[in-house]
Amino acid sequence: MGLQRYDSSVFALCRAAACRLDPDWFVAPQSLGEGKDEIVTDSQTTSNIAGKINILCIPARDEADDIVALMLAQLLERQGQAARSIQIASTADMLSEIVEANPRLVCISALPPFAIDHARALYLKLHVQQPKLNIATCLWHFEGDAEKVAIRLKLATGHRLFTTLPQVLKFIAFEAEKGGTGGVSPH
Question: Can you give the pTM of this predicted structure?
Answer without folding.
Answer: 0.72
